[in-house]
Amino acid sequence: MPEHPEFDHVIVGAGLSGLLLARRLLMAADAGRLPGAVRIALVGPVPDPAQRVTFAHWARRPTPLDDWSIGAWSELQVVDHAGHARVVGLDGYRYTALAWDRARAALRQTLAADPRVTVVAERAVGVGGDADAAWADLPGARVLGRWAFDSRPPFVDPIPGAQPAALHQAFRGVWVRTGAPTVDPAAATLLDFSADDGPDLGFAYVLPVDERRAMVMAVRMGPSMDLPDPLPAVARVVGSSRWTIEAEERGVTPLPGRPAPRRTGQRMLRIGARGGRVRASTGYAVTRVLADTGAIVASLSRHGHPFGIPPDPRRDRALDAIWLAALARERADLEPAFLALFRDVPVDRVLRFLDGGASPVDVAAVVAALPPGPFLGALGALARQRLIR
Length: 389
Ligand SMILES: Cc1cc2nc3c(=O)[nH]c(=O)nc-3n(C[C@H](O)[C@H](O)[C@H](O)COP(=O)(O)OP(=O)(O)OC[C@H]3O[C@@H](n4cnc5c(N)ncnc54)[C@H](O)[C@@H]3O)c2cc1C
Known about the structure:
The chain has 3 domains: 144 residues, 3-Layer(bba) Sandwich (FAD/NAD(P)-binding domain); 89 residues, Alpha-Beta Plaits; 75 residues, no CATH class. 30% of the residues lie in helices and 29% in strands. It is built from 9 helices and 18 strands. The strands form 3 sheets. Strands 1, 2, 8, 9, 10, 11, 17 and 18 form an 8-stranded mixed beta sheet that branches. Strands 6-5-13-14-15-12-16 form a 7-stranded mixed beta sheet, sandwiched between helices. Strands 3-7-4 form a 3-stranded antiparallel beta sheet. α1 packs parallel to α4. The longest helix is centred in the C-terminal third of the chain and has 18 residues.
């Protein structure tokens, strides 16, 4: 079997987590924080350049993704089922929309131009390792390294209590352009429950980037992988103007019911969604991937291995389990829970809860604000399953 030369880091999957990890490894090496050579193999197919992908996240400090920001807001709207909007100030956080398709292309190009990086534009058919090496298997070749980081899309784990066996977050969004300047670029919307009345938990979010352009994304959380329809939510955004669709974005991510094992061998670590970095109950990943790739590089620098990363707090795992059990049982009734969070809890606590960095005090504030009905039912269901098992 032909073999590529040996690398220090074999990164499988050149998406959000793989590209960020590669970039951060090189930056740490340039700053003298990683000893020795840093030879990286980045294994993953070339993305479709026509595919638009926009991510949004919040941060208090600059991030390595800010170069690709297409909009940033210090307040957000939350809109209830009846169409009443509440404006929520973000208390020092900025909510940023990011042109991930452009960031992805630029990062890939920069990495490919670096002599320390070998880009292998293929799909791995397996990732493995033993005491001496880790590897990615390609059809007909093996890429060998000291460490392997696996970010291939994750398995869909069954969620206890869900019917059928798994929950998903399905996204479908449109970029709309209006004929007249009728879009309010200050009015970004995090949650709009007014345009969805299906059996699942459904909402839209809106990223208005100027007076004529906005992305309206419909999101559905539930067992179905069918894509939701963003068009009912467009009317609130465009006002009276005529409008056209410039581009579409879509995708489905599993909401995993169990924490993913991170370390899968002596030299292998799962990263990104495969490593559980998508918050199971909310689908947010960008902030967690930023933190995780930083922690991996810090561990390599400090310990000489990538495994010295903080585990997810037990309270986050418990909250995810309860939230997902509630979602599985009473999806359509969770709107009041989201509205209560943004009405009754200080916003910095809510944002940390949504991303997974909540302190015990944050969690207590969130739990106190949630309407007890769906969550007590979910707790009961989880307790019964534990007893039966
Ligand atoms: C439509 C959509 C909108 C989202 N919006 C947000 C948002 O606004 N905010 C937020 O925080 N999160 C959002 N997310 C969730 C999250 O940010 C993404 O899922 C994130 O991309 C996860 O990063 P990743 O590196 O694990 O996966 P990806 O970025 O998907 O990267 C995985 C890579 O692996 C490659 N690959 C697949 N198979 C193989 C193989 N066999 N070998 C090698 N490579 C392979 C793929 O081509 C891909 O490049 C959204 C997700 C979707 C789908």
